Amino acid sequence: xxxxxxRDGPRREDVQAKRLISENSHVIKKLADQxxxxxxxxxxxxxxQAQQTPQPKGLIIHDLGVTNTATDLKPYVKVSLxxxxxxxxxxxxxxxxxxxxxxxxxxxxxxxxxxxxxxxYSPVEGEMLEALQHLDGVEIHRDFDDKALAEAIxxxxxxx
Length: 160
Known about the structure:
The protein folds into two domains: 12-51, no CATH class; 75-157, no CATH class. Helix content is 35%, strand content 19%. It has helices at 12-23, 25-36, 39-51, 126-132, 146-157; strands at 75-79, 84-89, 95-105, 108-113, 139-140. A five-stranded antiparallel beta sheet has the order 1-2-3-4-5.
């Protein structure tokens, strides 16, 4: 019966192989570059560059966490291409409040105010609702188009 036991530490063959590789690493790199046409060195440099942290020198950094203050807001009414009527900020371009939608088809379109009864996610409430209530259900036609609707809303909210 033969008993094989595992001894502590690395094997003698492994130590010799590691020493041989480390002593001849410059020759191995030279051969790898010669075989790959310089690709081995380029790959090693790319690895080193990827591991470096990016430096802010020469970069444009946008801080998306900064919010506008109340003095920076310049509200205006915008009718988007998908017929949503929103109150937006002229400085930042961000939507402040959804006011409603223009609904209908080629036969006739009407402005529908965003209210809680109509299951809008962020309904118009309070003083803004009272100021815009008279425009709810107004018909959009050639004489009173979406631009005229936006102007009427701005006048009702006191933005002009």
